[in-house]
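Hello Y.,

Per our agreement to keep a running log of every chain we model this quarter, I'm adding this entry. I've kept the format consistent with earlier entries: sequence first, then predicted structure.
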Amino acid sequence: MSEYTDAEKLKRKLQRRVDEDKDSLAKLCSEMVKIPSENPPGDMSEIASFIRNLLENHGITVESYEPTEGKINLIAKIGEGRPSLILNGHMDVVPAGDATRWDFPPYSGEIKEGKIFGRGATDMKGGLSSIISAFIMVSDIFESLPGTLTLAIVPDEETGAEYGARWLVENRKVQGDACLIGGAPMDGCLIGEKGLCQLRLKSTGTPAHGSLPILGDNAIEKLVKTFPVIHSIERQEIRVPKELSKIIKISKDFYKESMKARNVTDESKLDAIAKCLDHNTVNIGLIKGGSKINVVPESCVAEVDIRISAGISPHEIKRQIECLLKEANKMDIECELLSDSEANYTPITERIYKLLNQSAKKIVGTELRPIFVSGATDARFFRLHGIPTIDYGPGDLLLCHAYNEYVSIENIVKTTKVISGTIIDFLCL
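Predicted structure for the entry above:
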């Protein structure tokens, strides 16, 4: 099976199988969309059972890990030894939100006009359909696999992955020479992402009657006055690693094109969106304070989500913010680090990227664009443990977490073909 010609025959066989199973691919995605797997609350019992039964019905042994109730990880392996490739995807979806803002029931899984509609269709049950189907098909055609293919289906991606990908990697439940995640847009390949620094800021004051606020010290007002100070780090110029400079330029163009496709035409807004990729961004995501409308609040807490450019660490950002607060004479504001991760990326010289790009060129007809993104994904946990990881799938970046989410059936089919071809090349060549 190590001969190139044999690999080509296997790939052609897989491509035919994908075409024959097109309807099954769409149905699989639709059935998974119909299973609400919202996170929060994050109970994956129903969808994990569905996927497990599917795999076991194809004679595949599945291991299950549940580090906390409802947060179920599924691991399946075929073959043994090296090379070893991991296919990864997450089952959880963000809440559907206000049902009246959907044009269809958010968990309908309706198949119409070549699309599958519903919450999670693009993020990432379309991608799950591709990686699960590719895994099953490879299992079916190989009597003896020259290496190891691991399928890792995880919970908890939407809320930090403490019990999902992070738990699996840190507890060495999954290992490999490379990892391919099936959740990204298929006109690009996500090879890196910004860092994360999430902080909790707290102020204290003195309570008093609301009719005599001068007698108190308003903790909410004290904390709100720090927000311009926090936002000042967005203006900081950061020198990104040299090998990322060209990729960030490609990524900025990708973001602009994606926004224009969504009828965003304001050039200043497009430039600001692109600037997010090599500058820090600040989002005051949550604020809680006070006890009653007619009482001067004695405490206030804000949680701040800072996405960090490559070239600076989350701990350095925290230190800078503490210095800025001190310079602004706001030393009584407490600053606590809630969550952090370094900016991370997989060089495009890595074998997994080269093979995926080669497969995409043959099947889709275009060369992949390496994309560095503003958000955080499960890829960071694999990368930060030395596993080169890329993300390629059938979704649409701008439909993630949006109302009226859908995924194209054609994209699922193409993605399954590309991923199947990449698996063969990675394990056989």
